[in-house]
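As described in the Methods, two query proteins were run sequentially through the folding procedure within a single session, without resetting any intermediate state between them. The first query and its resulting C-alpha cells are shown here.
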Amino acid sequence: MDKRISDFYLKQVTPVYIDDLRFNLSLKDSFFFAGSCFSNNLALWMKKRFIKQLQIPHGNIYNPLSLKDCIEMCLNPSLFNVKDIEKQDGLYFHTSFHSMFSQNNIENYIQTIEVLLNRAKDFLKKTGCCILTLGTAFVYQRKSTGLVVNNCHRLASNEFIRRKITIQEAVEQLIQIIKMIRFENPEAIIIFTLSPVRHLRDKATENSLSKAILRCAIEEIIDQRQVFYFPSYEIMLDELRDYRYYSSDLVHPSPEAIEYIMKGFSRICFSKEDLIHIEKLEKLISMFEHKALQPESDRYKDFIQKRTSRLKELKAQLPYLQWPEAFDFTNPP
C-alpha cells in the first residue's frame, strides 16, 4: 500500500493487529464450522471459493453449552434419541436442531438427521481446521427436563428459564469441546471466534456483558496446543466502526464486512501462493457473475471462451477444491 494512503487509513480507523497464529492452513485443508449465524457467513465465503467446508448440521448454535452438546452428537450420532423428537403444528422437531429441518413425516425427519450427523462425523474426524463461533452467554433451560436447548422452536416462553452462564461454566464447556475433537482428530487446528452480531434482544447492556463472558472464557483456553482466537468481534467493533458495515437490521455484518473479515483471516492463515490462487478464484467468480447485455455478440463469445479456458486451467491447478460437476452459467457458482 502507498505510504500516503496507509498513513491516511491509520488515522481514520483503529487497526486491530492480529497475533501470529503460528500455523499455515492450505486450500487443500477442509474446514468445519459450528456456532452462530456468523459462522454460517464464514462457511459460505469458503464455499463460494470451492474450499472444502461443512457446517454443523444442527443449524445456528449460540451458546457454549449447546455447542458442546451438538459437537458431541456429531461425533457420536447415537446420542440423537428419537424419543426426544416432539411435534407441534403438524411438524416433528428436535430442540437440538434448527426448525428448517422440521418435517411432517417422522421417518423422513429421522432419516434426514441421521444422514447429516454421520456426514458430519466423518468430516469432523478428518478436517484440518474447526472454526467455532460463540454468540451469547444466555441460555434457555427447559423447566421440564432441566436441559439447555439449542432451539426453542417457538414453544411457550413459560416452558423455559432464561439464565446467564458464568465464565467458569463457559470454560468447562469449551474444554470439553477441545477434548472431544482432539480425541477423534488430534491434529485438527481449533479456532474460536466471537460473533460480531449484536444480540439486542438481550438489550445492549446485557449483550456487552454476554460477549465479555464469552471472550474471557475463550482467553482461558487458547493457550492449549493448536487452539487459537481470531478477533472477528474486535475487527467489526474497531476497524469497521460504522453502520454502513451492518445489514439493514443494524445488527448483522454486511456482506462487505464479512468480506473484509475473511480477507484478514486469509492473510494470516494461508500462504502467499494460496492467496494468489484465491485472487484468481475470485476473478473467475466475477466472470460467472457477469451479466451480458449482448449475449449474441462476438465480444461476449470471446469472453465465454476465455472464461471456460480459465476455469479449465484453475481446475487443473487446484484439483483438491470442491469443484461442482457442472456450472450453471446463468447463476454464480
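Immediately afterward, the second query was submitted; its sequence and C-alpha cells are:
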Amino acid sequence: MDIIREDCIYARQSVDRKDSISIESQIDFCKYELKGGSCKVFKDKGYSGKNTDRPEFQKLLGEIRKGRVRRVIVYKLDRISRSILDFANMMELFQEYDVEFVSSTEKFDTSTPMGRAMLNICIVFAQLERETIQKRVTDAYYSRCLKGFHMSGQAPYGYQLEPTVVEGIRTKKMVADPETSQYVKLMFEMYSEPETSFGDITRYFEEQNIKVYGKSLFRTFISQLLRNPVYAQADLELYEFFKSQGAAIVNDASDFAGTNGCYLYQGRDVKEDKDRSLKDQILVIAPHEALIPSDVWLKCRKKLMTNKSFQQGRKPKNTWLAGKVKCGCCGYALKATHVPNSEGYFRCSKRTENKGCPGCGKIRKSEFEEFIFSAMRARFKNFQVRHSREEKVNPKLTAHQIELAQVEAEIEKLLDTLTGANATLLAYANKKIEELDTRRQTISKEIAEMSIETMSPQKEQELSYYLDHWDSIEFDDKRKAVDG
C-alpha cells in the first residue's frame, strides 16, 4: 500500500507582541500557496528559533522520516530556524526524503544549486538578525541602568516598590518600608562599631526574635546587605570612594547631593570578584531616598574590605561530608570545625550563627565519618544482593528524569521570552523561573537519592572501587562516593 504524501504548514511565534505576526496570519499566508489544497498544520507558540527543540516541529520531522510529507510551507525562513547548522541538517533531511521546501514570502526552488545557495545566504542573515536582537536587548538593559530605572525583581530588604514615571516611561521606585528599614539601620549601626562582628548581629536578632523574610538572620545575608550602596546617601564622600576604587560613575560629582541612594550594576567588563572589587562596576544615582548616612555606610564597607572571613563558594576541606549532613533539630547543615591538635567536631550551623537552635551537641568528626562510611558499605552490599536477583528499570526515576527535562525546557522557553519583553512580562518571567528552578533542584535531589537503585555497571564498579580503597583515595573521590 502506497503512503499518501501531503503538504504541511509549519508556523512558529516566540513572543506574542504587537510587532510580531500571529500564528494564524502565518497559516493564512501559507495556505495561499496551496491554492485551496488540503494540508496538515504544525504550530509552536512560545518557542525560539535558536534551536529545533520544539514539540510540533519534532512531530513534523517525524512525519518526514515516515515518508508522509511532500512539501513543507512556512511564512518566512526564520520561522523554521535561525541556526545555520540546524538549517543545513534540515535541508539534508528534506533532500533525503524528497521533500520540497517553500517560503511563502521568499520564493525559493530547493531543487537547484542556486536556490540552495540563496537559502544558505538568507539563513546567515537570519542568524545575524537574531544576534543583533540579543545585542539590542543587552544595550537597552544598560541604557535603562544608566538612567536609574528599577530593573525588575523584588526591592532590596528595607524597601518596597511603588509605581512611578521616569522620563515618560513607567517603572517602579523604592520607598522605605516602615518596619524593615529600621532593621537595616540597626545592622549598619551595629556593624559600624569596630568591635561588632556578624555573629554579634545575628545573635542579637535571634535573642530579640527579629526575623528577616520570616527566617533567622545569617551572616552571608548581612555581608551582602552591607555592601549594597542602594542604602547609602550619595554625597561627595561616597563619590570619591567609588572613584578611588575604579568604579564607572555615570553622574557628575555635582549630582551627589547627599539625599538619594545609588544603584550598582555589574559592568560588562567586570572580571574580578564583584563582592570584593568595585573596578568597572557602574554606579548610578537612584531616584529613591537613602536610609544610611554615607559616613556610616563607608565605615561598614571599609571594614568589610579588611574582613577575610567572607569566602563565598569556597571548597570544603575539613570533611568529605560537608554540605551532606543536617541537624536533626532545625534541619540546617552540620558544619565540621577544625580544632588545632584535635580531630574536630560537627556542630549545628544555625547554633554557630546565632544560637537559634539547641544544637546536636559535639559530634566527634572521626566517629561520625566512620559511622557514615559503615552505613554506605552496608547499603551498597544490600544493593548488590538485590541487583543480582533481578535487573529492572525504576519507573519513578524515569518519570523524574522526564519531568526534569520538561522543567529545564520550560525555563529555557521563559528565558527566550525575555528578549524584548516589557517590565510586566519580565517580572512574571523572573518569578516563574525562580519557581521552576526551585522545582528543578527538588527533582534533581530526588533523582540523586534514587539513582543508586538503578546504578549503571560502570557506576557500580566505580563505587565498589572507592569503598574498597577508602583510605587511599582522594578527598574529592570520597565526596563522589557519598553522592553515588
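Confidence is low (pLDDT under 50) at residues 309-313. We note this only descriptively and draw no conclusion about the first query from it.
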